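Milestone M4 deliverable, item 7.
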Amino acid sequence: MSILQRMGLNLNIGSDEIEVVNPPEPPRVCPKCHGKLIKWGSYQREVTLEAHLGRVFKIRVRRMRCKKCGVTHAVLPHFLAPHQHFATSVRQKLVEKWALGPRCGAWPPNFTAVWTRCAAG
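Output delivered:
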């Protein structure tokens, strides 16, 4: 299960990693059963940002586990959707450009192809 958390826009973008500067405290209550959440490690995830399209960055995602129901939750920054490698702003702009007209063509399964076709307009 994923929990989206507002992280602010203070990001430290390195050559291949993104670090959230001064992240807020992670949530402490399970959204499923309202039990207590404890820190349960973290993992790296890949993301593409709008300002750096074509580059893939790694971001560390904190995991939390509920002591009551045992469910593990990933605490995602607000600009990422679960199971997506493109930031939400990139996905929104792609849909807007695609909806503008036939120049962008039918929706292919690859965001990069749509961006390449539609970015200039």
